[in-house]
């Protein structure tokens, strides 16, 4: 990942990454997204990018045929491995989503769906375009692509601290230790998402709940 601040922040956050899901008002949205993901990815061989501690990996593994779960942080992958996933369904890999190994997915055969979990919003425009180009090159057309990410919620989400010359927006995130990190974070509108993916994807659909949004499409 080009911005190593993001990777370092989440590595240091560790298990506390899931603390945000303890927000009582988020319960209904988590349930809705879990059901939706389970339906979308049922029977698929899934490549998950940005699996973190495996919160959503565990959701997907319930209905998917199999999952290859990838994260850049070995420490987070170690936490995810301890979740007790369905036997034989999940393979974990430590890798950068922007520089995927050529053999990714070989453990389970042909990948039929990709889930990008809360990673898209941390990528700048060039990185987003690079990720899409890599997926298209490695996986070919008609693969289902699912982007799951945060919606901006007043009073809950961090405020945008700055915007750089390329239009990338940044938040200041603070660890429980008090250490602060400036990381890229975007909250894209439906129109911006459609514009970004329009050249490489078809059948784009976007749904939003209060805390999350989910985009589904097929690579051209």
From TrEMBL:
CDD domains: AdoMet_MTases (cd02440). Residues 46-139 form the Methyltransferase domain. Keywords: Methyltransferase, Transferase. The keyword Transferase applies. It is an enzyme of class 2 (transferase). GO terms for molecular function: methyltransferase activity. One of its GO terms (biological process) is methylation. Its EC number is 2.1.-.-. InterPro entries: Methyltransf_25, SAM-dependent_MTases_sf. The keyword Methyltransferase applies. This is Class I SAM-dependent methyltransferase. It comes from Massilia niabensis. The lineage of its organism: Bacteria, Pseudomonadati, Pseudomonadota, Betaproteobacteria, Burkholderiales.
């Amino acid at each position: 990942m080009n911005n190593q601040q993001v990777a370092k922040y989440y590595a240091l956050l560790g298990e506390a990454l899931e603390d945000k899901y303890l927000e009582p008002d988020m319960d209904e949205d988590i349930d809705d997204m879990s059901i939706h993901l389970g339906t979308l990815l049922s029977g698929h061989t899934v490549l998950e990018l940005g699996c973190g501690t495996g919160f959503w990996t565990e959701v997907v593994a319930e209905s998917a045929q199999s999952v290859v779960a990838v994260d850049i942080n070995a420490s987070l992958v170690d936490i995810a491995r301890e979740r007790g996933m369905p036997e034989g369904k999940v393979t974990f890999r430590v890798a950068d989503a922007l520089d995927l190994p050529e053999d990714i997915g070989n453990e389970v055969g042909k990948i039929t769906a990709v889930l990008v979990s809360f990673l898209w919003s941390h990528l700048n425009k060039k990185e987003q375009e690079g990720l899409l180009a890599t997926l298209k090159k490695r996986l070919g057309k008609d693969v289902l692509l699912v982007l799951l990410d945060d919606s901006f919620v007043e009073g809950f989400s961090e405020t945008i601290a700055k915007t750089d010359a390329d239009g990338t927006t940044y938040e200041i995130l603070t660890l429980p230790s008090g250490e602060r990190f400036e990381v890229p974070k975007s909250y894209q509108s439906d129109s911006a998402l459609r514009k970004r993916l329009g050249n490489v994807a078809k059948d784009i659909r976007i749904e939003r709940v209060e805390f999350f949004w989910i985009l589904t499409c097929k690579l051209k």
